[in-house]
Amino acid sequence: MRKRYAAALACVCVLGIGGCGKDQETLEQQMTLRSQGMDQALSGDYESAIASYNEALSLAGMRAGNLELDIASYKAAAQYHAGDLQGAADTCTAVLDLKKSAEMYLTRGLIYKAAGDTEAANADFQAAKDMTSSKDLITLGRLSYYMEDYNGAKDYLEQAYENGEQESLYWQGELYWQMGNKDYAVTLYQSYLEEHTDHPDIYAKVASYQMDQGDYESALSVIQDGIALGDSESLQELLSYEIAVYEQMGDFATAKVKMESYLESYPDDEGAAREYVFLKTR
């Protein structure tokens, strides 16, 4: 459940940045720690990222300007990815107590949804919707999708595409994938990938679909394109798919080499360890 909303969280949690009257040295320290935390989160080291964000926030004293709210937003995302859903929700609540924003209601709603609290999630999604401009069709479409108003989401996203907003292709793909129409969802994903690489989660979905169809060569190409992006959230899944594709193609020697590399990075994957025992006999 958490993985479904990981990519979505990357699309929110960003507020405007301002200095709030602090001295230049403090501002530069905070910005450095913010950048450090972002790099740590990108590499998958979420605990270190949280520590960097906390240090940046501690420099603010009693001040809470846009920069502090922005850093707190990134902290919430890192807590989410680290598995601390309650901590992430609490951080969002602290931000909302200081400044109401559609972005933060959306963020907290995604966290509640990942935690299985549909009622709280929908309340936040509705609050975000109430604060969203009628011109922001993609956000309105996303919020409708999260609230499982699929017809409403479809209308918003199709209108956004008609207005030239390519991002709507990704969210339409998400919508149709969730509705079970994977054939059309993959067509939308592939159209989006022709010009965009900012949603790494697409690669795993397209590859899994192609594997189910027995199109292993196409799946391998998509998987390797996704791996090349180096996204920490999708990398493990893509690497495991790569091994599975080589096995299905009968290339057990390459699958074994890939598995050895995989286990160096993910030694706690017991299923992979068992599969490695099998590969050593091939």
What does this protein structure show overall?
The protein has 282 residues and is an all-alpha fold. The protein has three domains: 1-131, Tetratricopeptide repeat domain (Serine Threonine Protein Phosphatase 5, Tetratricopeptide repeat, Alpha Horseshoe); 132-196, Tetratricopeptide repeat domain (Serine Threonine Protein Phosphatase 5, Tetratricopeptide repeat), CATH 1.25.40.10; 198-282, Alpha Horseshoe (Serine Threonine Protein Phosphatase 5, Tetratricopeptide repeat). It contains 16 helices and no strands. α10 (167-178) runs antiparallel to α11 (182-193), α13 (216-229) packs antiparallel against α14 and α15 (252-265) packs antiparallel against α16 (270-279). The protein is globular and about 65 Å long. The two termini are 35 Å apart.
Helices and strands, in order, run as HHHHHHHHHHHHHHHH
CATH architecture of the largest domain: Alpha Horseshoe
Query: Compute the gyration radius: what is it?
Result: 21 Å
- Average pLDDT number: 90
Q: In the CATH scheme, what's the topology name of the largest domain?
A: Serine Threonine Protein Phosphatase 5, Tetratricopeptide repeat
Strand portion? under 5%
SS-based class: mainly alpha
The N- and C-terminal alpha carbons lie at a distance of: 35 Å
According to DSSP, the number of beta strands is 0
CATH homologous superfamily heading of the largest domain? Tetratricopeptide repeat domain
Give the count of structural domains: 3
Q: Characterize the largest beta sheet: strand count, sense, and whether it forms a barrel.
A: none
